[in-house]
Amino acid sequence: MLNWLFDKKKNKEVGLAHIGIDIHSHIIPGIDDGVETVDEAVAMAAKMQSLGYSKIVTSPHVMWDCYRNTPEIIQAGLEDVRQGAKKAGLSIQIDAAAEYFIDEHFNEMLASGQRLMTLPGNRLLVELPYSTPLMNTSENLFSIISKGYQPVLAHPERYTYFYSDPSVYKKLADGGCELQVNILSLTGYYGENILKMAEWLLKNNLVTFLGTDAHKIQHLELIQKSNKHNWVTDYPFQNEKLINI
Predict the structure, then answer these.
(1) Residue 114 neighbours by CB distance under 10 Å
(2) 134-148 mean pLDDT
(3) Which is deepest, 41, 48, 102, 228, by most CB within 10 Å?
(4) What is the DSSP string of 119-176?
(5) What Enzyme Commission number(s) does the record list for this chain (predicted)?
(6) What digits encode the pLDDT tens for the residues 179-214?
């Protein structure tokens, strides 16, 4: 029944029209580790449109030690990208949220009721440290829920410190956190272990959303050439339900 996860047919490109909306990318120029220019951003939007997406909600980093992005900075950059896409004749809808690193500054913003940039449905895209686990991950996610947001955990397959006890993913999902896997993880871009964990999450029906997490055009070209296409077409990702929210 799960053969679609491991189909390795060659020379077939990924089509993403049925996914409809990408909720994780970095296409606002010059404000994080994504694109540097509006031209790059427009090229990525054009590639995403050609892949079948009808809507992008891009998600620049908010990580106070590195990227001190505010809603005002993000919104200004979004308008530049929208204008560039309009001039290029693109039809894809482009909106913005943010990818919040759970750090002291994030917790302060959450506690004080500051404006946060959300995905459709008042969803808050958050990420964890890659190397060292937070001591209070569950408590942080509960505090997000208590403030009226729906937490979406970005690329859970990349937090390798959870691999020794993957039941933590089910605990997070059961606690109300939606999980978003990267397409790039499923191409093997980040390595074999991350690919295997992404597949494990899929096999255990723990994934809600699929995201590109594209930072540059080469990421989208890799997705386009991916030969792991059946997981995209057959897994019940819920991206589409966010399109009209």
Answers:
(1) 11
(2) 92
(3) 41
(4) BTTTEEEEE--SSS--TTHHHHHHHHHHTT-EEEEE-GGG-GGGTT-THHHHHHHHTT
(5) 3.1.3.48
(6) 999 999 999 999 999 999 999 999 999 999 999 999
Q: Which of 122, 121, 176 is nearest to 153 (CA)?
A: 176
Distance in angstroms (rounded) separating the CA atoms of residues 139 and 173: 13
- List the alpha helices (DSSP H) in the chain: 38-51, 71-87, 104-112, 137-146, 167-174, 183-186, 192-203, 217-225, 230-234
Assess contact for 154 and 141: CB atoms under 8 A.
Answer: no
pLDDT tens, residue by residue, 81-103: 999 999 999 999 999 999 999 99
Residues in contact with 201: Cβ distance below 8 Å, sequence separation at least 6, in sequence order: 156, 157, 169, 179, 181, 207
Across the range 209-220, mean pLDDT stands at 98
* Cβ neighbourhood burial of 160 (10 Å; 0-12, 13-18, 19+): middle
Paired tokens of 156: 């859970």
